[in-house]
């Protein structure tokens, strides 16, 4: 079975969504969760963009154990130096360099000719390669780039040392058939593309990010870039949970797999909602409140007789447990632990005794407590020693 790499950019493109900035300690905590969920690559930020990003990437590089840690960098030596400085302590590291290649971006943003862009790509990818073996190169606004120019740029990047070529649909403009034609053209005309990973990075301006990413699998993409809950610039990026669930549920069609530990998805989704204050809509696939609820009588009758009449996904596979226990003033520690598990928390990571005290105090003032408020209290009680002990080991 073909294995697809999952590149998570919640901490970089996700953080670019309005109102979604995260503190350094919350970013480190999220990176640990992504590592445990077995994402292949964590884009921890854009080191040259701010002190805060640099600091977060550096801390993340010290604690992530298995995932590759990467930082974004523009095609210039200063950005590449700063990116490398931020990731250099990581067990596995990658530098991700990008430059815009569409006519409109080159003319109005970069103010560079095609020849100039080609020479910048050669110089910068070779420069990054001297620091790090694993180099990803992205053609920003690729889907509005002249296809023959895209092929030229790709071959220059690979000859200069790129090991992954990423094709972003930066403005969420393309549609599945057009996108697969573009990728097939690259596959056919680039001399070297088959020697590296082919990645896609789609934005959701027309609601097509997930289907565009999935379509790319049929024409040879080996990496999908995505974010938890689909957060990201403007209308967001491809949602990790949707891609993973689609590949898993329709394995008969896609004939590939990811290494994601699916049971962790709900916990990570809840955490991202909480720390970004950006809550998913009720009908959001996989992680929305209504994703596994049935209201119509006909549907209910079907599900009672056989779940598969209306359920194509087992929520427990994604760490989601349907629950009708209400936590209130009379609830005990066991019920609270059970509730936490159902909400997708790994109970060992939290200070349970304090959580019980805080929940009971809340219930004394409010009679009962919602899942959202329980989640907030739990997140405030994450055990700091988890992060600290990992740091001390390094
Ligand atoms: O959308 C985009 O083009 C990007 C690149 C920088 C990869 O986020
Ligand atoms: Zn993007």
Q: Could you please describe the fold and organization of this structure?
A:
The chain is of the alpha/beta class and 394 residues long. The chain has 2 domains: 2-276, TIM Barrel (Alpha-Beta Barrel), CATH 3.20.20; 297-393, no CATH class. Helix content is 45%, strand content 13%. The protein contains 16 helices and 9 strands. It has helices at 24-36, 51-63, 77-87, 103-110, 114-131, 147-159, 176-189, 209-217, 240-249, 251-254, 265-276, 297-305, 333-342, 352-366, 371-380, 384-393; strands spanning 2-8, 41-45, 68-74, 93-100, 135-140, 164-169, 197-202, 223-226, 256-258. The chain has an 8-stranded parallel beta barrel, surrounded by 7 helices. It is globular and about 70 Å long. The two termini are 36 Å apart. The structure holds 3-methyl-2-oxobutanoic acid and zinc ion (ZN).
Unreliable stretches (pLDDT < 50, length at least 5) are none
Could you state the order of secondary-structure elements as H and E?
EHEHEHEHHEHEHEHEHHEHHHHHH
Largest sheet: spatial strand order? 1-2-3-4-5-6-7-8
Distance linking N and C termini: 36 Å
Spell out which ligands are present: 3-methyl-2-oxobutanoic acid, zinc ion
What is the CA-based Rg, rounded? 22 Å
What is the percent of helical residues? 40-55%
Number of domains: 2
* Shape-level CATH architecture of the largest domain: Alpha-Beta Barrel
Supply the CATH class of the largest domain: Alpha Beta
**CATH homologous superfamily identity of the largest domain:** Aldolase class I
**Residue-averaged pLDDT, rounded?**
93
Instruction: Please state the structural category.
Output: alpha/beta
Taking the sheet with the most strands, its summary is: 8 strands, parallel, barrel
Number of strands: 9
For this structure, the CATH topology of the largest domain is TIM Barrel
* Principal-axes shape call: globular
Strand portion: 5-15%
